Sequence to fold (363 residues):
Amino acid sequence: MTEPIRSLDARYYTDPEIFQLESAGLLSSTWQFGCHASQLSEKGSYASFEIAGESLFAVRGRDDQIRVFYNVCQHRAHQLVNGTGKSSVLVCPYHAWTYELSGELRSGPNIKAVEGFDKSSICLTEVRSEEFLGFIFVNLDPEAAPMDDWFPNARQELSEWVPNWAELEPLEWIEIPENCNWKVSVENYSECYHCTLNHPTFASGVVKPETYDIQPQGKCLRHTTECQNLENMTYDIHSGFQHFDEYSSWFLWPMFSFQVYPGNVLNTYHWRAIDTDRVVVFRGWYSVGGVEDKKIRQLAVQDRETTVEEDIHLVESVQRGLNSKGYRPGPLVIDKSGGVNSEHPVMHLQRWMRQAIDGQYKR
Ligand code: FES
Ligand SMILES: [Fe+2]
Fold:
């Protein structure tokens, strides 16, 4: 008799030492969402963001290339830029050292007075980055494999499901703070075993739970389902594109997900881990040119008031439970034939979570 696979030990979600190890390891060596290319529409536009405790910024160069740098001056470490903006060069606010948009040091007050000062040896530290359907992803590991190796076929499939992706811009990113470990939130997102009981609107108005399935595709978890009552949808789904009558989503390990709703409506989730028991989830909604769109706003409101609200209570209760002395990790419900009532995607996630800190953490 084989033993059932048990859920991850509670300490993985409650021990600050594990969170430290994840920040230094996992979160610094995986592809993380930084910003949207439309925030960098002109030469010299920049946007800053934080990944794994590091301040970074993306900037569009004179050559139209988007580059991502650590947000730190190479003189005496002042932060270079703040928020978003546009500038023809990057001037440090401390002593006005000035960098090209491509990162090379261009000038600095009185640097010529320094004997042996080799200007050409000074450059901002660049970070691996990739544009993925208009989304800028970064990886702090210079040796990281490209996103297409991590998430095979996802780029191709998404460009079929969202053929107008190049015209889309963010309409809003709704910020949802959750009092739980980021892994609790990501696991909850990655199974629909809880959907029928907890998400009546989603389960009866959007998807057909009995057809829901999630399967790994490299380090992507691909969600597919048939849709419920397409004729009763609250908005017009006839986009003129293929796949208009489908729902699909691509979760890119560890903290980003592209979802496509019927009518080829792109929306996203991204997570920012704050500490052991706090995470912020961002629900992103997009429209052509980022212009006001009633249909999208209405979907965003419905989603915020139903699925998102319902999930907050679930994940926060789980986090409290993980801190209970009375909890022993239970068996995951894994059905070999997959399907909505199987937690096999959680098994994959927990395997990846364990691998990420294996060998570094012994207790
Ligand atoms: S720290 Fe940036 S110019 Fe001195
Ligand atoms: Fe949920």
About this structure: The longest helix spans residues 294-322. The CA atoms of residues 132 and 155 lie 7 Å apart. Residues 188, 194, 199, 311 surround fe (ii) ion (ligand 2) (CB under 6 Å).
